[in-house]
Design brief:
The chain is α+β, with helices and mostly antiparallel strands and about 400 residues long. The chain contains 15 helices and four strands.
Length: about 400
């Protein structure tokens, strides 16, 4: 009986087909071996709106950090002649000739009702200079300097004339540059919510973790305290806490106290979230195994329970910052938060309480645009983080 045995030699095409699954398997291994934060980052990179919001927030916080350098004027600089002045126009041509970016001096007149009328005096042009000298400040709180990014200088100043001004956002009722005050105010409006949220985050983890992990009478007492704090109306509670701040205290002290007030008002909601997560996780197998192994309760909470839903807490933290921003703005707008000589976006919006002031000087609403953009950016970033942290997406 003749038996023929045929051996097929592998072709280059078959080798390629055998190598492709191996390469795909390597990619799959990288995916399955990735940590939770790596998976969240990969998903977040595909959320375009969240990435755009992250860039916008980066620009806003960059402006807050370097606000004294970017602002052409200091916080207390003013010119009475330019009170309620509209934004200055930046020109490039003077009498038909290109001379680069410059501004004209404002000429102030009065109408029949004694209202100010600002017109440009086109006799002389004043070039916009970069890295000009101005009000002294400490860059990053350490470097003493008087260099500002841009400004306008009068080469032939006169004693009876106000110096020319560059008012990108116009001026307030005292003749102060609104653009500079908006940048300097962002240092308060963008940092108070972050610090307040960080404090409330720590309080929520500690108090909510104790409530959910130990339960019993401790849980009952903590939950009743949370219910009492949550039952108070927000504005009267703000008024009561702000009234406790003594008059005439330093600006730094007011800043710290406002941060503490904001944190004390925002931790109960997150504490309940932490409690619910602890209740669902403390009966899991790995937590019971840690107890049987003799691990202390503090280490179980710190190493096993909290990391299990840290991504969820960070998402809630990001979504809670906009509420903090709106809260600080509302407090300052009502006169319960930051006070002069300090400034914030809420302080700047105090002049918008009069509808007639808004009708005559609509540029005073520009800080409101900053508040809206910041709140929307944090919300979109929080939505992107929530989708990225969802294991079912």
């Amino acid at each position: 009986m003749n038996t023929e045995i045929s051996i097929e030699m592998p072709t280059p095409h078959s080798n390629k087909e055998q190598q492709e699954p191996k390469g795909k398997q390597t990619e799959q291994e990288k995916y399955f071996m990735a940590s939770q934060w790596q998976l969240i980052r990969r998903k977040l990179m595909h959320h375009k709106l969240a990435i755009i919001s992250f860039v916008i927030l980066g620009v806003l916080y960059f402006g807050a950090v370097f606000a004294p350098f970017l602002a052409p004027k200091g916080l207390e600089e003013y010119s009475g002649s330019y009170s309620d002045a509209p934004p200055t126009k930046i020109h490039l041509y003077h009498k038909g000739k290109w001379i680069g970016p410059f501004v004209y001096r404002y000429k102030v007149d009065r109408d029949a009702f004694e209202n100010k009328i600002f017109t440009e005096d086109r006799k002389s042009s004043y070039a916009i200079r970069f890295f000009t000298h101005g009000k002294k400040y400490k860059l990053l709180g350490m470097i003493q300097t008087n260099i500002h990014l841009f400004g306008v200088e009068d080469p032939n100043p006169k004693a009876d004339e106000d110096p020319p001004q560059i008012l990108l956002f116009g001026a307030d009722s005292l003749g102060r540059d609104l653009f500079s005050r908006t940048l300097l105010g962002s240092q308060v409006s963008l940092t108070v919510p972050l610090l307040g949220t960080a404090i409330s985050f720590v309080l929520a983890i500690i108090i909510g973790g104790i409530s959910g992990y130990y339960g019993g009478i401790i849980d009952t007492i903590i939950q009743r305290i949370i219910e009492v704090l949550s039952s108070f109306p927000t504005i009267p509670l703000w008024m009561a806490l702000s009234a406790a701040i003594p008059a005439g205290v330093p600006v730094t002290t007011v800043y710290i106290l406002i941060t503490i007030i904001m944190s004390l008002l925002s931790w109960p909601g997150m504490a309940r979230t932490v409690r619910g997560k602890f209740l669902s996780l403390k009966k899991t197998d790995y937590v019971m195994a840690a107890r049987l192994a003799g691990v202390s309760n503090a280490n179980i909470i710190r190493k096993h329970l909290v990391p299990g839903f840290m991504s969820y807490l960070i998402v809630n933290l990001t979504l809670g910052i906009p509420n903090m921003i709106l809260g600080e703005t509302s407090m300052s707008f009502l006169g319960l938060g930051m006070r002069a000589p300090a400034t914030s976006w809420g302080v700047l919006l105090q002049e918008c309480q009069n509808i007639g002031n808004i009708a005559n000087c609509p540029w005073k609403l520009i800080p409101l645009i900053y508040v809206g953009v910041t709140v929307l950016a944090f919300n979109f970033l929080g939505d992107g983080l929530r989708d990225a942290a969802d294991p079912y997406k």
